[in-house]
């Protein structure tokens, strides 16, 4: 198992963090479009990504019509028009900001969960993503791959039961009135499929995520801290604000 360093970038505010992360993502997309004329991007849907996505959307020189977008997870059991649906969140907070038509493949949450996961795996195909835009959960999950996460899952997408920490996070962030209102299941893209990307840009603001950042940077890859799987990828930039930044000793590690 070859390990790679995660490049840590600390910025004072979430806005500064998002500006830097979005600028990096835009640069990587320019390079992909210049090389092939098209690009594939995997998106995370969460308030932590808002500043990064706004910066990316403002890159006026990018041909977003040549970019195919995917997203990494969505709930099972919500109404199709529910504002908490991650596909709906991305439509409202990112895709609607882009000029002209775009290609966005949504997880088909109107289907039975197993069918939705299998269908989305087929939709993603086997080509790598040019850029993965991700965050970390309070429990350091990647997408809804909660601990203990499978770092060698042969599937590209699967149905998962959300753990208590992930469900509490969704309520604490104000997406649902109570934990009981948070769906218990989701379709998630697996860690191996997420990491089948040329580049990873990870945006993690807020003090609630500081422990996840510290453990991700400080530990060798372990399923108990899914974020540590990022060390298996050769090109990862982790952007945090001051509140999420680990201590200096961990940063050096």
Automatic annotation (TrEMBL):
InterPro entries (UniProt xref): Glc/Gal-6P_isomerase (IPR006148), Glucosamine6P_isomerase (IPR004547), NagB/RpiA_transferase-like (IPR037171)
Sorted UniProt keywords: Carbohydrate metabolism
Every Glucosamine/galactosamine-6-phosphate isomerase domain range: 13-230
Keyword Iron-sulfur in annotation: no
Protein name: Glucosamine-6-phosphate deaminase
The organism of origin for this protein: Georgenia wutianyii
Taxonomic lineage: Bacteria, Bacillati, Actinomycetota, Actinomycetes, Micrococcales
